[in-house]
Each structure stands twice: as C-alpha cells, then as structure tokens.
Amino acid sequence: MRVRESTIEQELIEKLGELKYTLRRDIHDRATLERNFREKFEALNRVRLTDAEFQRLLDEIVTPDVFAAAQTLRHRNAFTRDDGTPLNYSLVNTSDWCKNSFEVVSQLRVNTDYSHHRFDVLLLINGVPAVQIELKTLGINPRRAIEQIVEYKNDAGNGYARTLLCFIQLFIVSNRDATYYFANNNTRHFAFNADERFLPIYQYAAPDNSKISGLDAFADAFLPKCTLGQMISRYMVLVASEQKLLMMRPYQIYAVQNIVECIDKNLGNGYIWHTTGSGKTLTSFKASTLLKANPAIEKCLFVVDRKDLDRQTREEFNRFQEGCVEENTNTESLVRRLVSDDAADKVIVTTIQKLGRALDPARADYHQRLEPLRDKRIVFIFDECHRSQFGENHQAIKAFFPKAQLFGFTGTPIFEDNASYKRIEGDEQTLKTTDDLFQQSLHEYTITHAIEDRNVLKFHVEYYKPDGKLAPKPGETLAKRAVVDAILAKHDAATGGRRFNALLATASINDAIEYFVLFKAAQAEKKDSDRDFVPLNIAAVFSPPGDVSADVRQLQEDLPQEQEDNKQDPEAKKAALKAIMADYNARFATNHRIEEFDAYYQDVQQRIKDQQFPNADLPMKGREKLDIVIVVDMLLTGFDSKYLNTLYVDKNLKYHGLIQAFSRTNRVLNDTKPYGNILDFRGQQAAVDAAIALFSGARKDQAREIWLVDTAPVVIDKLKEARAALDSFLASQGLGGKPEDIANLKGTAAKVAFVQHFKDVQKLQTQLDQYTDLTAEQRAQIETILPKDELRSFRGQYLQKAEELRADQKKPGDLDEATRNEVEQLDFEFVLFASSTIDYDYIMKLITDFQAQGPVKSRMGRNELIGLIASDAKFMGEREDISEYVRGLKAGEGLSEDAIRAGYEKFKADKAAQDMAALSARHGLPVAKVQAFVDGILSRRIFDGEQLTELLAPLELGWKARAQKELALMGDLLPLLKKRAGGREIAGLKAYEA
C-alpha cells in the first residue's frame, strides 16, 4: 500500500516537534505569516512599528532578487521611521543563530496577483521563512518535487518574488526514503535540466561520507535548530561576483569544522585529504574567513606553490567575497602585509616561493621586520601540500614561527609507498610523508567517495596492444608513429565524435616536439587519401628554455622534467616552440610570442575549457576548438575542464603523479560523458593498480570496481539485456521489434514505457561508443544487437514520443494518477540524442552531396538522410521542414552548398507565408494584421491580450462569440509561435496551453 504524502508530512512535523520546533497551525496564509514576522521583528529589535511603518518595511525588504534578500537576512540594515529617526535592525539574531525562534508551518497558501501556490512545510527562523520542504509520496522520484519548485519560481508574479518567501535560503525535497537539498538562487542559477549545470543538488552525509538519505535520519542530522542555523549562517557562501548562493558539501563542512576545532583547542597541525576536483578552494576559503573572526589568530596565510595557482586562488577567494584578498606582487609586498595591522591583511594568499624568500636567513632586513610576529599564533594553510618545495619551507616556518599551526590540503597524500625522496633531515627523524609533516589526518574524502557521489567520473583504461603483437612491457616505448596512427584511429570514438578534447602526456620536451611534427605529417597523408577526413587541431605546451620572464620561471619551479630537459640544446627547443606557436597563431588568428609565453599558455587552457558542443551555451565552430594538446609536465596537475575526457599516455607515471594526470579527464558534465578515457601506450597496468590501491582510503578491496568502468563484454551483455527488455515490452503491446512499429503504441503509459526502455539502451550505446578497445568481433556483436540504421530510427521514434509526452504533461487531467506520476518522473535527456558532429552545417553538406552531379557517390540516400535528421534532438523544431525540403530536391541536380542553403531559407519563408495565409483565411482576418500581431509577440516574447482584442475588433463579435474566437485563433497560433520562438519562453501564453 502506498504511503500517503500527508502521512509523511505528519511524521516530519512530529519529528520537528521532538527537535523543539514550535508548530504554528495558526499560520496558514500570507496575512498570518506577516503578522507573526512582525511580532518577532519587533521583539528582536525592541521596537513598536506603526502599521504604515511595517508596510513600508515589507516594501523595502521584499525583493525578487534572491541574492539581495540573502544579504539582508545576514546583515544589520537601516530603516527610517515615520518621524525621521533611524532604526538599525536585524531580521534574525545573526550573532547567535541558535537563539532565534524556530517554527514549523504546514500547508501554507500564498496567493499573489498572478500566482496561487501551496507549500508543504516551511521552517521559520525568527518569523522569516528560511527553509521550504516539499514532500512526495513514497515511490515518486524527489526530482519531481525539484521540478515543481522550479516551475513555481518561474510562475509570473509568484510568492517567492512578492512576499516574505523571498528569504528562503534552502529547499529540501524528500519522498521519505530519498532526501535532497539545494540553495535558493536567482533564475539564471536555478535552471534544472538534463545537464544539472545550474542547480547543484546535495545529499547529506555523515563524517565518514556515508549517505543520510531517509527523511527521519536527515532531520536528526541536519535540522536540529543550531545545526540548521549554522548551515545557513556559516556554510552557505554568497558569491558576490556571480550574485549566487553556494552551499558547501558535507565533506567540506566537516573539514572546516575540524580545522577550526584544531585551532580553537591548539591541537597541533593536520591535513585534509580531499580528492582532486572536490572543491578544496572553497573549503580553504571558508576555513580562512572563519579564522578571520578569531582574535587569538594573528594571521592566516593560504600558501600555493605556483604563480598561476596564486592568481587562480586569489581570484577564487575574491569571487567568494569581493576584495577579501589583495595581490602580493612580490616578496616585499608580502612582508609589508604580514606586519600590517589592517583587517584586510589578516588573510593573505601567497606563493610558497615568496614565503621562502621572506624567511630566507640571508635576508636580515625581512627577518628584522618580521621579528614581532615570532611569538604570535599564525595559521598556514597549504594547497597541494605534497609539492616539491614544501619540505624545505616547512623547517623554515617552524623555526621562525614556533607557535604556528600548519594545515595542508591534498588530493594525493604522500605515504611511505610513494615518498620518492627524503623531504627533511631533522635531528630526530626524517620527514617525508604527509603524516610526518602534518601529524594527523583531519578529514578524508577520497576519489572513491567522489566517484560514488557522482562528483567525479569513473575511468576507462585501455592498455594499448598493436594489432597482432604482444602488449608492450611495463615502461617500454612504442614507435611514435605507431602511437600517432593509433590516436588518429581512436580519437573520434574516445572523444564522442570530437565532442570532447584530449591531452597527450609525453616523457620529454624532445618527445613532445617530435609528436607535434609527426601528427602534422600523418594528418596531411590522411587528408590526401581521404577527402572526408577533417584534421584534428593540435597544439603543444612546454616551458621555454633560456632567459624567460619571472612568470615563466615561477611556472618552471614545479615542472622538474621540463627544467631538466631545457638544460640540453636550449636553442633547438626554443626554435621548435616558436614553430609550434606560429602554427597555433595561423590556425586560431592569434598573435602569441615566445617572450610572452604565459599568455599563450592561458589561451590554450581557455580553449580547452571553452569547447562546447552544438546546442549548448556557446556555439562551437570547428576551427575555434582544440582537439589534442601535447604536454610534458604542464596541465597534468591542477587543471580542470569538463570538456577534457581523454588522456593519451606515452610517459611513465606512478602513484600520485598517475592519479593527478588521470584526474584531468573525469570532471562531470552530463550523460554524454560517461567516464574519463585513458589510453596507455606504456603497459602500465601494475602502476595503475598500485595507485588505485594506495589512494582508495578504507575501501581498497572494492577500489577497482568503484574506480573503473565495466569491461566491454559486460556492457555489451547489458546492452543485449536492455534490447531484449525493449523487444519484450513491444511484444507485450502486440508489436514487432522494429522502430516503425512504435508509431502504433496506444496510450500514454505505453509511450512512457517505451521512452524509459529506449533511454536505457541509448545510455549503454553512448558508453560503448566511447570505448577505444573494442575488437572487431565486439563491434560486430553490437551491430547485431542494434544495427546502426535501426538505432537511428529508434532515436527518431524516441524524440517523437518524448515530444508527445511533453505535450501530455501540459494536460494532466487526461491521465490517471499512476500514469501521471510516471510522466512527471520522466527525464527527457535530449542531450543524449544530440550528436556532436551532426549540426546544421553538416546537414547542409550532406544535402549538397545527395544532389551532386558527377560520378562521386552520395554518402546517403534520401531516406537515410531524412532518418538522420529525425534521430537528432537538435532538429526537433525543424525536423519536418528540413525533411520536406529534402524530399523536394532532385538527386544529381548539382546545386552548390550556398544555393542549397538559400533554397532552404526560401522554402521555409514560403511555407511560413502559406501557413499564415491559410490560418488568416480560416479565421476571416487580414493576413497582414495577423502577421503583425505574431511579429509583435515574438519581438517582445510577451503575449499582449489588448493586441488580440484589437485584432478581433473588426469582426464586431459579442463577448461570448469573441471569447470562443480568441480560443480558436490562439489554439492555431500557439504551435506556430512556439516553433518560431525556438524553445524560448513567451510570457502570458499559459492560459491557452490546455
């Protein structure tokens, strides 16, 4: 028997009562909510407001701007009373959040001019609605509650924008078994789609990272009054530069709590083991800012080890809080800020190199100025604390600041197994591991935890074997041309048809140079033999030798292989790098010079990050993106891009170096990026296994299963099962297993089932498409399970049915409850059905090929071409037009691509004019007037009811006939408006979306 939503709500209210919340059954609408807020406000600020003053206060504080409301909630504010006297007030007790009143309201109804909503449970802090809890019946995906909140917030004139609900900081959704929470935000940060790119959603966890998902356990852990107050006041970050609210993840909160406790109790040093990509900068920022308020601490230094990280970290800190960290341009500036009493100088971001120079015994002037700090409590927080220069500076810091506490962040700690050399020779012991240096681990969130949480992806590792030959022995090098040929053969598969990009890690600068030359030659040969081959855009980055700028010298300090390489024949390396940069300039119309290498390096990084596939935020043009960047040491640590998914390895890696390099590939994007791809040309399976075992924390026995994706045979078996399940479902509907049979599905429930079954098939197909190690037999097996033509046809049917179901969602009254729940839970992941290589330009080229003259055989026949268009989500709005245009073309007509494009645009314009003329005639209206009405709506993206009244006025209809005519006309215009709006919303049309 299904547990009712009302039962879950009642159980939660009883639990909150146990947690000493006050249940306010008397608060049920906007008036009673505001009356309670007034009482709490007046008590907190020891004031009595007149009715006029209270109304004016509400007018001042209620705002549709979520970020502004969040700031008002956290700060002391000013208000002018009716008699002109000032009132400085707070909405809540911000000095001690635990001392606020905490109340529960259920089934609150808020009606505004344009919006009528009911809210399951609200938590009030001092009368301010701070948390909204939306509940769903057991078995309904909480995602539906998230979508509902997004829909409420997008409703014109909603209560979130026009009432005290603007102060909501957190949303919690649950179906009793699964509970999630997320921060409130302005609309641009509050979209919820298949990418989940704008709306981070969290599950709470215990200190050991085990999930707390049941609503009862979540309430015990997250909703005690003081805990909730801390979550909102201390562990939410207001990102000023983006006007955005950010919630810290549970492991970040525990790390900060443990650092602060360690300092408060003066318990010595410690380190945080949080895996690469887990947001260490935010954690360290929050620790630093909390220390800023601690009077026992004189200074807090956040220490990084490279100039680019110094800049990046400073920018990140200032992103979280504008102007909180100033630039340290040199060592003198650092020393000046260390001795300053200015509050702005309490938290300092600096490089370990500058800190080393400041503490250098040879610099007596610095020592003399820093002497007053010797006996002060200073906190040092080190980013990536295992880096090469740390050991020497550790001793200098401890010698000069005996009362200092040192904290380190690392994604890959140094253990006995991976300690490559002795760090410090002290009198009593040799300090070489992270434990030696920092005494104790304060919190761990390993890559194993991050993969399980989907914060980072698993890896697919292929150990390359040349055809018909044995795999290389560990560390053995293959001929570079063989590696180049293998990469060219596998790159499109590995990167999802160049949707993503790749790094090639090489063993030396000379190797990198040789690879760049070989790729150029190999691609020229390939282009000569295959007219359809599109060359990859390839760049290389390694630090220049010789006399370089201070910026580059600082970069080189953490690039040991490159430093060593540049000692040999520096002029030849400089000449090669100039040639590589000249090639880059010619390709991308840039003007980089070796003397300003840092600008080139930044441009390469940005180009890797900016690669986006069609139909996303940034339009991608083939000539703008990088496909492969050849590296030696650069970019293998500390560099993040969601669009980098592949690492080619022709370099010996081990332990932390291996994990750091692999982790460049596994940033989460969406289901089109199922894992990070590693193609190893050095036979390093033993090294990979050893690294996985070392960095898995307490889960060594399950590490391989967690870290690595299933092998191809396992996924092929899953694909076979998914296809069999699809066929079985179709058979249960009295249909064969062919794509064309889908058109005969009857009823919404059947459409829902088909969409779910085929999405399972497509996800597995996407995963296999990016496997680089499929054998010919395995490819044949996949083709047997799901032939390509059949897959394409099924994709077209999926998109068709998904569109129909989206329309069904608009009229839920036609569905029974069970089917409606199924439809509401559907996640139409159209991103899975949008090819990276098939865009508008590509389709136009195919159409040109199709009707080309001469002996060259077209790549596709007419029906294949129409099927390809129908199977890609990008063309959902234009599918019928393009298909109809293709049907009207003559094969062999020999039109140019420009003529094809112009012909298609004219075809669309003519068709639109015919449709408009037919619609106008049907309704007895002048076509020019209807066209002007439509153009006006589209230009402003707002439906204007007065304009509609004017359009129909010449018909001189009575009110009843006019109302019927309005509905009939708008019923015809709605699909036309939506099509021409291209997916963008038009305000005011909801009344006609029956």
UniProtKB/TrEMBL annotation:
Catalytic activity as recorded in UniProt: Endonucleolytic cleavage of DNA to give random double-stranded fragments with terminal 5'-phosphates, ATP is simultaneously hydrolyzed
Domain Helicase ATP-binding: 261-431
Keywords per UniProt: ATP-binding, DNA-binding, Endonuclease, Hydrolase, Nuclease, Nucleotide-binding, Restriction system
PROSITE patterns: HELICASE_ATP_BIND_1
Any one GO BP annotation for this protein: DNA restriction-modification system
GO MF annotations in UniProt: ATP binding; DNA binding; type I site-specific deoxyribonuclease activity
EC number: 3.1.21.3
Pfam families in the cross-refs: EcoR124_C, HSDR_N, SWI2_SNF2, T1R_D3-like
Functional note: Subunit R is required for both nuclease and ATPase activities, but not for modification.
Entry's family note: Belongs to the HsdR family.
Subunit structure: The type I restriction/modification system is composed of three polypeptides R, M and S.
Protein name: Type I restriction enzyme endonuclease subunit
Lineage, opening ranks: Bacteria, Pseudomonadati, Pseudomonadota, Gammaproteobacteria, Lysobacterales
